[in-house]
Amino acid sequence: MQNGNQLSTTYRGAGAAAIPFDRARRLVLLSRVAAEGIVGEHPFYFAPALGGTHLRAYNYQQLAGEASFVNSNDLRLDVYRFKSGLPGTIGVNLGLDHGRVFGPTIPDDTWHLNYGGGVWWSIVDEIGISAGYFRGLDGGERFTFQIGPLFANTGL
Asked: Is the pTM of this model over 0.70?
């Protein structure tokens, strides 16, 4: 703290890769990785947090610490593509996430693992509606329902 102001530095990094298994791209593996950290004194609400879009079985910002790491993997299958009327795609996805937070206030070195799946419908391959269920091995579970840009979150 300097002159009543808290000084801290936040760092973030993320990346994603999509690997299609067929030429029509009906079966795709998407893997995302993200890391975040903070150095210096900071209010608790600036701490790197996991949950929600990162560890999908946990509530938003449920896990917080000085640093975080997460990896999310989705296997997505286009079940039906329609071109008449309003073009779009209906599909299913299976997901597996793992991650943890680090810091001196974190009492253990637990890696949180969750799995789940869902269904989605994309309209004109831009706007989507999705519903899913994810369950954590250590007890967390969450239903999700989203409307908006489909699969837009890359982990940042």
From this structure: yes
